[in-house]
Every structure is written in C-alpha cells, then in structure tokens.
Design goal:
By secondary structure, the chain is α+β, with helices and mostly antiparallel strands. 26% of the residues lie in helices and 28% in strands. The strands form two sheets. A six-stranded antiparallel β-sheet has the order 1-2-3-10-5-8, with no helix packed on it. It has a four-stranded antiparallel β-sheet with strand order 4-9-6-7, with no helix packed on it. The longest helix is centred in the N-terminal third of the chain and has 14 residues, at 18-31.
C-alpha cells in the first residue's frame, strides 16, 4: 500500500481524484456544522478556492490538505477516504429504541427517532400506529417523505389520493402535501424517512 506521503503527493498533483477528496471534505464540514466561510478562515484558504475544491474543480497542496484536516478536527486519511470517521456511522440497535407516546387526541401512535440529532438533510423514525389509529402530517417542508411498511397494513391519504400499503410496500411523495396515515391491522409499524429541502431542518417528530 502506498505511504501517506505518496498519497498526499498524488492528491496534490491531481493523480488522486480531487472530486472524491472534495466530496469527503464537504461531508466532514457539514457533519461538523461548519460554514464554508468559517472553514476557509480556519484553514487559511480563500472561500472561492475551498468551494471549488469541494466541487472537485481544484486540487490543494499537501500543506493546505494538512491545514484543512486540522481545521476539520480530522485527518488526511479521512479526507482521502481511507479511514471512516467515528461520527460517520450511526447505529441504533432494536433493543435501544426509545418509543415516545403521542396523546390520543393527536393520533395515539408511538414513535422512535432513528436519525442522528445533528444530521443534515434527513430524519428517520419508526412509527407504531394502532388499529384505527391515525397520524397526520402537516405538509410543512419542501423535501420528500418516504414510507416503508415493516409490519401490518396502513392507509395513507396524500392530498386527494389514498393508497393502502402492506408489509414490504414503499411510498414516496412531496413533503409539501398534507397527508394522513391510518392503521388498518391491529398493529402497524412503519419506517418514515423525511428528506429535507435545501436549508430546512425538520423537527424531532415525524411530520
């Protein structure tokens, strides 16, 4: 395996994919919740150069890569995609699910948060809906909502369209549409994934 110094030299010369390294750097920056301006200042780079680097249009010198890794509190290996950052993996065991109860007047269902609290752009939930229980979505974001039925059978009404989903069925629709989920079987478990629109933050309860 090539030494790190050789890999750094390849990255500096453009032999290593600048696009991949830039994507890794941007992903690290977003996970750290650092703005482009803040990172550019910390790393001693111009905002324009850093932006082009994240898009894979510019390479960085070895010295700049080292400064960038330090500014991200990371390593060059992580920037090169050779090491997985600890915070890049988020595992929730089934035995660790914390189910939260929603009052009967609000639908009487239960849910657990799966996604990372500081995750960018995506939120995931397990939702348990009792028979004849309902979960209403206000249609409050510009992204997408994804439903995958794990157990049972539910009816989902999106605007003026209704569809029945059984275990193994998948449904995706714009998050800007009001929707209503109703449990049909005695016990129903649904995976709900909310993909946010640009610049949005969806709260800690399935929409």
């Amino acid at each position: 395996m090539p030494s790190q110094s050789r890999r750094l030299a390849a990255a500096e010369s453009g032999e290593s994919s600048s696009r991949d390294i830039g994507i890794n750097a941007k992903a690290l920056r977003l996970r750290r919740r650092i703005t482009l301006d803040e990172l550019a200042e910390k790393a001693g780079l111009s905002k324009g150069h850093l932006s082009r680097f994240e898009r894979g249009e510019k390479a960085l010198s070895v010295a700049a890569l080292l400064r960038l890794a330090a500014a991200l509190n990371s390593s060059v290996s992580a920037l090169l995609g050779e090491r997985m950052e600890d915070d890049a993996l988020h595992l929730v065991r089934g035995s660790d699910l914390v189910m939260r109860d929603v009052p009967p007047e609000d639908g009487g269902y239960r849910f657990a948060i799966l996604g990372k609290p500081a995750a960018q752009g995506i939120s995931a939930f397990i939702v348990d809906i009792p028979g004849n229980g309902e979960r209403a979505g206000e249609g409050h974001h510009a992204g997408e909502e994804i439903f995958f039925v794990i157990e049972g059978q539910v009816e989902i009404t999106v605007a003026d369209r209704g569809v029945v989903l059984r275990a193994g069925d998948y449904l995706q629709f714009p998050g800007s549409h009001r929707h209503l989920t109703r449990g049909i079987a005695a016990h129903n478990r649904v995976l709900v994934v909310v993909v946010e629109g640009p610049g949005e933050r969806v709260g800690g309860q399935p929409g």
